[in-house]
């Protein structure tokens, strides 16, 4: 299904009051009996370029409920398929935090990588 918002005003020059800036289109299953289903396009790796194959591998376990055309799409849909989907102008992604702990049996000690140690590298005895 494709949902679009079209401004068919042909007035020249266009007036600001005839424009809608950053509209949000929202579809919700609240008070409705439909459920969202995951988009599962039939991709052919033979017709994909390297970037498309890389993205397909990277996001292979992510559910896709919508694709924007010149806009971002976001959603909040539970495991049963109920929720909402909306257009968004600023894509967002959760970036996992980075761990800075070294493995216990690592050859380089945490002390050697500490900022205090690295800031005092004026003595040759402190070099790695």
What is the molecular shape?
A: elongated
Number of helices, counting only DSSP H or I runs of 4 residues or more = 2
| Class per helix and strand makeup | little secondary structure
Low-confidence stretches: none
User: Could you say how many structural domains there are in total?
Assistant: 1
Helix content: 10-25%
Mean pLDDT value: 81
Number of strands: 3
Strand order of the largest sheet: 1-3-2
Biggest sheet details: 3 strands, antiparallel
Strand content: 5-15%
Distance between the termini: 61 Å
Query: Oligomeric state of the chains?
Result: single chain
Output the helix-strand order. EHEEH
Please tell me how large the radius of gyration is: 25 Å
How does the SSE layout of this entry go?
Elements: E1 26-28, H1 50-58, E2 72-77, E3 83-88, H2 115-119
Antiparallel strand pairs: 1-3, 2-3
Describe the protein:
By secondary structure, the protein is low in regular secondary structure. The chain has one domain (1-93). 11% of the residues lie in helices and 12% in strands. It contains 2 helices and 3 strands, in the order E-H-E-E-H. It has helices spanning 50-58, 115-119; strands spanning 26-28, 72-77, 83-88. It has a 3-stranded antiparallel β-sheet, with no helix packed on it. A hairpin with a 5-residue loop joins strand 2 and strand 3. The chain is elongated and about 75 Å long. 2% of the residues are buried. The model has no long low-confidence stretch (mean pLDDT 81).
List descriptors:
single chain, 128 residues, little secondary structure, 3-stranded antiparallel β-sheet, 11% helix
């Amino acid at each position: 299904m494709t949902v679009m918002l079209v401004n068919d005003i042909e007035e020249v020059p266009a007036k600001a009051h005839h424009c809608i800036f950053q509209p949000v289109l929202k579809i919700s299953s609240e008070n409705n009996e439909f459920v969202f289903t995951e988009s599962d396009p039939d991709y052919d790796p033979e017709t994909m370029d390297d970037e498309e194959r890389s993205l397909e591998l990277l996001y292979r376990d992510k559910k896709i409920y919508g694709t924007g055309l010149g806009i971002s799409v976001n959603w909040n849909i539970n495991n049963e398929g109920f929720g909402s989907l909306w257009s968004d102008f600023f894509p967002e992604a959760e970036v996992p935090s980075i761990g800075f702990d070294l493995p216990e049996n690592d050859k380089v000690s945490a002390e050697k990588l500490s900022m205090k140690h690295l800031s005092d590298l004026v003595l040759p005895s402190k070099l790695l």
